[in-house]
Amino acid sequence: MIRGWRALDRRDWRTWSACWAEDAVLEFGPWEQIRGREAIRAKVEAAESPYASMQHHILNMHVDVAGDRATGIGYMWFVAVTTLGRASAPYSVGGPYDWEFRRYGDNWLLVRQRLGVWWTDGEDTLGAFGPQRPGSDHRSRAGRRQHGMTARHGRACRRRISVAPCTAGESPQWTPLGGTR
Questions:
Q1: Does residue 174 lie within any of the structural domains?
Q2: Domain holding 16: CATH number?
């Protein structure tokens, strides 16, 4: 995982896509479900190539192994510089990961990844992570303030990685694959 996500930062799409099974599925909040290693690579490469620089952080990972299968959870913190020379105004996204892995010989490959969006900061001036799902609010903190929304009311909730607006006082929620919180 770490090798693959560091490869994303270097735009080494071949190394990154080699971490995925041929029949893999990617589910990412604002995108439709994407099936197949090559389709996943094409979508992510098209979305992330325009950024001047990127960092993909995977945090608080936990993986359970059962024979030749494994499931995992963690958190994503993606930071991107949208314009060369403007490193002080990055765009960032954060949210939960759910993974399913399968062992192929000596290698573990991603079979399914669900990635939700709980928050964004800055402005995605490149529009790489649209379109947004109906009813979701992926605006930055500044964008929510501009539209009269406080952080409390603009927070995104996630159930099974789908994003939906929270009601006042509700916290983001999620359920790991095959389990309860």
A1: no
A2: 3.10.450.50
178 lies in a domain? no
Q: What is the DSSP string of 138-181?
A: ---HHHHHHTT--HHHHPEEEETTEEEEPPTTPPP----TTS--
Domain, as residue range, for 143: 2-165
Mean pLDDT by 10 residues, the chain (181 residues): 90 96 94 95 94 92 97 95 77 94 95 94 81 39 33 31 35 43 41
Annotate 74-94 with DSSP letters as a single string: EEEEEEEE-STT-TTS-EEEE
Bridge partner residues of 57 (DSSP): 77
Q: What is the pLDDT at residue 139?
A: 34
87, β-bridge pairs: none
CA distance 94 to 140: 11
**Is 177 among the domain residues?**
no
The answer to whether position 99 is within a domain reads yes
Looking at residue 128, what is its pLDDT? 81
The number of domains in the chain is: 1
Neighbours of 126 (CB within 10 A): 17
Angle at 143 between CA 142 and CA 145, to 5 degrees: 65
The pLDDT value recorded for residue 31 is 87
